[in-house]
Design brief:
Chain A is of the alpha+beta class and 292 residues long. Chain A has twelve helices and 13 strands. Classes of the chains: A alpha+beta (292), B alpha+beta (158). At the A-B interface, helix 2 and helix 6 of A face strand 4 of B.
């Protein structure tokens, strides 16, 4: 039998019903959205045996992607396919659409959610580096109130988030990027589809009329214990005209962060030079229109 | 728990454990064994079904999650014109060898053609990227879908 063992399965019809339920329970709650990770975790070990599984996948209030002034708001029930195909995301935060497109396969993306990718805090989470460069925030339902938390503050370490019991991420909030902002996402995996990230690179960049960089953010994913961006790396390009030398400097500085932050691991000898090469490749193509 | 949903165009109420995997409910509770169990981790696509028009791996969906949804399995697809055309094209173009992956392949192909009547080769490859076949080498499968696309186009012009 492959049932997910749990104390109780609860599928609220509305957010109000869910709020009432949360007010009246002191049990441990585990949320399921798409469930593509939770079902696998439950197969390995009965980790939800003493928890109430609350299924939020079909809550209408948590579906959809909308604009809210200068922000994009992505509901916790939005699948990777929803995000990948969203006109709003493609227009104002294309790096996220590209990242979501790299997740698993079409079959997985049709049921897995972006929010689940965040809350699972997998170090190999495909979307995380793109959310990092976009400076995402999370709206969280806590004690019947909505609070806004920084995405960086929610992921603690590999596979661990800092959310409290019953906390529910209801929305992901991203500042819209100017349509002139260039962006790119690159995933290194062992095969084209269904690959677990060995590394991802996400970047956004905007130049002014004279060609000087006014906005730049780059980071790599599946590399650090949690999503991170680096001011000293980004400052290499800001205020300057992109050049091969500056791109090389960015690539070196970002790749040097790997042993600095993650320590010298077996994979460092592979990841550090790969990061440097990938950053050069992505930035040279995006900013200098050159293949390296 | 009672779960109401549409299965192969018929409304049903299934009384089962909501945390059962959809693939197990389909095969064990409903005795529809056309949907196969392969890798059980969402990588092979043998268990592909279509929920509300989207192809998904039913080993990674709980049956409780299909409340109110429209689920199509390979048995339901065989009743549809598009299913019959896909089946014919698969057979005629050598896209079936051991046949274990075939139901999943057909479900993914159906979901694609149902949404996009004129997919490009790249779009077909992308749509089939979650379905693995260890026999055919994929080329006959992709050719069959191209063929089915053409037959469906001809049919719609009549």
């Amino acid at each position: 039998m492959n049932n997910v063992k749990c104390k109780k399965y609860f599928r609220p019809e509305t957010l109000l019903e869910l709020k009432d339920f949360l007010k009246n329970t002191s049990e441990n709650v585990s949320y399921i959205a798409g469930g593509t990770d939770l079902i696998l975790h439950a197969r390995e070990k009965d980790i939800y045996e003493n928890n109430i599984i609350v299924d939020i996948f079909n809550l209408k209030e948590l579906k959809g992607i909308k604009e809210e002034g200068d922000k994009i708001v992505i509901g916790a029930g939005a699948t990777h396919t929803d995000v990948e195909q969203s006109d709003i995301v493609n227009k104002y935060a294309k790096v996220l659409a590209l990242a979501c497109r790299s997740v698993g396969s079409v079959l997985i993306r049709n049921h897995s959610t972006l929010c689940g990718n965040i809350c699972n805090a997998s170090p190999a989470g495909d979307s995380l580096s793109s959310l990092a460069v976009l400076g995402a925030k999370l709206r969280v339902l806590r004690d019947d109130k909505i609070i806004e938390l920084d995405f960086f503050d929610v992921i603690d370490k590999p596979e661990v988030n800092k959310l409290q019991n019953k906390d529910l991420v209801v929305e992901i909030v991203i500042n819209k990027l100017d349509e002139n902002v260039k962006c790119d996402f690159f995933k290194l995996g062992r095969r084209k589809a269904l690959a677990i990230s060995r590394m991802t690179i996400s970047t956004i960049c905007k130049t002014d009329e004279s060609g000087n960089v006014v906005l730049f953010n780059i980071t790599c994913g599946a590399t650090f214990p949690k999503p991170m961006t680096f001011e000293d790396v980004n400052n290499i390009l800001i205020g300057k005209k992109p050049s091969k030398e500056l791109i090389d400097e960015v690539a070196k500085k970002l790749s040097d962060k790997i042993p600095e932050i993650a320590g010298i691991r077996k994979s460092t000898a592979y990841k550090q030079p790969v990061c440097e090469k990938m950053v050069k490749r992505v930035l040279s193509k995006m900013l200098l229109n050159e293949e390296v | 728990m009672k779960i109401d949903f549409t299965l192969n165009n018929k409304h049903i109420t299934l009384d089962t454990e909501p945390t059962k995997r959809l693939v197990d409910a389909i095969r064990d509770d409903l005795s529809l064994t056309g949907t196969k169990i392969g890798c059980e981790v969402g990588e092979c696509g043998a268990c592909t079904v279509v929920i509300d028009g989207e192809a998904v791996t039913s080993c990674l969906v709980l049956v409780g999650q299909v409340q109110g949804k429209n689920v199509l399995t390979i048995e339901g697809l065989s009743e549809l014109e598009i299913g019959r055309i896909l089946q014919k094209c698969f057979v005629e173009n050598g896209a079936v060898q051991c046949g274990f992956c075939t139901p999943g392949m057909l479900m993914s192909a159906y979901a694609l053609l149902n949404k996009n009547q004129n997919p490009s080769k790249e779009e077909i490859k992308e749509a089939m990227s979650g379905n693995l076949c260890r026999c055919t080498g994929y080329v006959p499968i992709l050719n069959s879908i191209e063929k089915a696309k053409d037959e469906l186009k001809t049919l719609s012009k009549k």
